[in-house]
Amino acid sequence: MIAAELLARADAARAAGDVETMRAALVAAFAAARSAGDHQAMAAAALALPASQPFGVYPGQLPALLHEAYEAAGTLPDRCRLAAALARSWAYGGDATRAARFADQAQRLAAEVGTAEAAADALDAALLAHWGPDDFTERISLAARLGDVAAHLTEPEARLSAQLWRLTTAWECLDIVAVQRQLRALDIVAEETGSARAAFFAVSRRAMQALATGDLAAAGPLIARTEAAGAEVAEPDVQAVLHSLSAMRAMVASDLSALREEAAAFAAFGAAEGIPSVSAEAAVLWLAAGQPDQAGQLVAQLMADGVAGVARDVDFLLQVSCAVRVAAALGLTDLCREGAEALKPYAGRGPGARTGASRPPGGSGGWPGRGSRYVPRAGCGCAGTIPAGGLWATRARPSGWPI
């Protein structure tokens, strides 16, 4: 089968919400294009691959395929977009150092391309690559620049990405008026475009806000709408977003049965994928569920090397704040003191940087930066909010409560 037919199959699978078939078709399309020496089709397949990549898990061959296409790219715009896609893929896979290198390259190439579309794509990738706790000032600046660029674009993905990042940074700044404005902006993007994907991002963040403010009556219908919207989109982090919202609701409602169920799910996923922050969130959920022994065991394992052993990436504040919460409850004085000291420089920081799909952005993650080119992860910045932490797969999403 030729690459064009396989790309069409991938598009159809995405429209049907079938992530696995979409990914398989894209990989096959890449291989077919490589065999045919069709660098343009290789680029097309590679650029779509990050949309199939779950946030936080090992990326497998995807960065390698993207890099092959990047090296073979015959035009400056393609090379620019592939550099941005590489940054996203490495960020999704948890390697911020590699992500930053390609994000910087994407911005340099975007300046040469000279279009607003290229600039928006590169800025979105740069935001994903600078999501650590010490990148706050740069992240605010990048989000503002992306907003300025996207304000003059009609492309829905660019507009959606800009609004999601502005929402994420509004949470980080604890600017409630800005949060309300960005939530409404997301609603408008969904309404104007009729995009199921935009609707998913908009309603999932509305659900997060309802839970963050303790409004269980509003949260219930919003979570149901999030689940319905998620069934219509090919977002690999949809289930993570739904787990995050379910755990948030259980925390707010003090639903012990639901807390135990979600704690087990978080613990299993964190262990299976080797994601420390998800395991840390599981510890908080076990604690809230009245299972302090399980919570203590997880924290002891995760913090065996102390705070110094925790990577200072997008999940640093989340993992440490969860550990401190459990340590304080269990009387683990040394860990509590060490963690509190590490968190002190970030006092007053809101829940924007995964502390949270969309990713994350982007998540879905998310939570910011996924999709065709832009948009923070579904899991990214969208769901994932528990006191003193975020919830699995909520990068490009604000996840977490104020520290």
Strand order, largest beta sheet: 1-2
How many alpha or pi helices?
18
Which ranges are low-confidence, i.e. pLDDT below 50, for 5 or more consecutive residues?
353-403
Mean pLDDT: 85
What is the CA-CA span between the terminal residues?
A: 53 Å
Number of domains: 2
Shape estimate: globular
> Would you report the number of β strands?
4
Q: Strand percentage, roughly?
A: under 5%
How do the helices and strands follow one another from N- to C-terminus?
Answer: HHHHHHHHHHHHHHHHHHEEEE
Radius of gyration: 20 Å
The largest pleated sheet is described as:
2 strands, parallel
Search tags:
two-stranded antiparallel sheet, two-stranded parallel ribbon, disordered C terminus, 18 helices, Serine Threonine Protein Phosphatase 5, Tetratricopeptide repeat, globular, 403 residues, 2 domains
Description:
This protein has 403 residues and is mostly helical. The protein folds into two domains: 1-126, Alpha Horseshoe (Serine Threonine Protein Phosphatase 5, Tetratricopeptide repeat), CATH 1.25.40; 130-254 and 301-403, no CATH class. The chain is 66% helix and 2% strand. The longest helix is centred in the N-terminal third of the chain and has 18 residues, at 19-36. Helix 7 runs antiparallel to helix 8. The protein is built from 18 helices and four strands.
